[in-house]
Amino acid sequence: MTVLSRYERLESPGVWRADAEAQRKNVFVSLGKATLVIVSEGEVALSHWSLPALERTNPGVMPALYRPGADSSESLELDDKTMVDAIETVRGAIRRRAPHHGRLRGLAGWMIVAVLGIAAVLWVPGAIRAHTAAALPQAVQANIGERLLRQLVPVTGPTCTHGPSLRAADRLADRLFPDDARRVAVLSGGPVRTMSLPGGTLLIHRELIEKPASAEVPAGYLLAEAARAESAPPLVELLDHAGLWTSLRLLTTGNVSDGTLRAFAEGMPLSPAEDTGDLGARFAQAQVAPAAYLFDLTSRAMPVPKLTNAATEARPLLSDADWVRLQDICAR
What we know:
Elements lengths: L10 E7 L7 E7 L3 E6 L4 E6 L4 E2 L7 E4 L7 E4 L2 H17 L7 H15 L5 H11 L2 H14 L1 H4 L6 H14 L6 E5 L6 E3 L4 E5 L1 H4 L5 H16 L2 H9 L1 H10 L4 H10 L11 H8 L4 H9 L20 H8 L5
């Protein structure tokens, strides 16, 4: 997202509250390509917000008040005009990239319900779910992904949140996916190796960050997971599990219940499918050397994909300092 080029590594002070009853805390806020990282004065990460899901609760008024989504009780107060302008610029860019439904969106939604109610008898249910997933704005998908991540905690443990390391994770996401609003979250435990969430978040187990000697190894796993997410979108998988009426409700209201997300999190497969399509072309496009990733797969006795069109001149992924920070993400 080129709109962010002039805001790279932008930081500012702010005031954060975990919920309406919590004490206000002075924090530092760091703006990334797709995330807002909130860090305490002691550099402990307090929260990690998705920019597509971000909402401003007092438009046009300073200090600006934000929350990470409509269902969240967290809040952030910012009076740094440069940071507020940057956030609003990025949110505007995200909105422009999302589908535009116009003033008749509500009426159109009810018309869609009527049409789909009839078509449900005739259409393949999978086609309806695929249409729902394609029609949802990025902000709605990101919000669903954040809520699903919270439901995964009993299985995977919480994500790792060391402040400087989160910024390094954002830089890795920016390097691998410069044209997508993706973020990388590191899982602290559980059986999940990699996983994709609606809205573009890629999950990766801490072992794939801490043990390798170079960033090319986690980069390979992330590129493979992103390829799987394109061939089998995580939102479509969620709707396949939830059923047709959940698809219709999500299409018309933009909402899915916590119970539905919890049931999906409890029953979802913990190992990714092996089909990643033309993965070699992805390494070439990202200018990442695949050798370290393929060697890691071999050392784990895992299937090794046959890469074609992967020959490329590799570019550095992270600075040495950022790689060390990233490997330290679960240590604190």
